[in-house]
Amino acid sequence: MARKGSLEAERQAIARERQALEARETKLRESERAASVELMHKSVLGKAPFERVEAFFAALGKLGLDEAEKRLRAS
Length: 75
Description:
Layout: H1 4-42, H2 44-47, H3 50-63, H4 65-74
Protein name: Relaxasome subunit MobC
Organism: Novosphingobium mathurense
Coiled coil: 4-34
């Protein structure tokens, strides 16, 4: 039969691994966000006047990402 101490040690090890994984996921999301910003700066949108970019994103929000992609692929 397993000892109580070894079970608790395993729970603690799992908790540490879970925390490390959550930290890695947070870091990945931050890196993805930074890459998105960099990509936008390099794209046509990054060179457009702010008012046009703002209007573009408002229109995109009304259409939804899936519908906008569908229409862009069709053009």
